[in-house]
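Encode chain A's predicted structure.
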Amino acid sequence: MGFKKRTKVSAEFNMSSLTDIVFLLLIFFMLTSSLTSPNAQNIKRPTSSGKTPSPMNIALSVTKEGAYYIEDKLVAWENMDAALAKRIAEERGINQQKGIKDEVTIVLNVEQEEKTGTIVKIMSLSNKHKARLILATEPAKK
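Encoded structure for chain A:
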């Protein structure tokens, strides 16, 4: 008698748990991205073809009227050094609690027609406080 074994392996995979996880991640990223506003002052930034994403710790904005903002707080230039030092120290404390390296990044939002002297003054402040400074740009239109 020739008996055959009828054991078959089922190759099914249940995708419902994976879709739940993806959906929760989508909701998380949508909520967290709406909480950050790097360009709250509606500044027309310069354009660039670079597509490098930047880590954003501190947003520093300069409006065309010459007003300086750290995040969304208006700061006079005379108080900029102290206010920026305080904000950098706060960010370093947050990074240490998270176990992240000590590097703080300042994202500079300036008008397209802003004078180079203003940018250089802000660069010297960031160097003084040992923070990395990057210039925020708009993507170039094709």
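The chain has one domain: 38-139.
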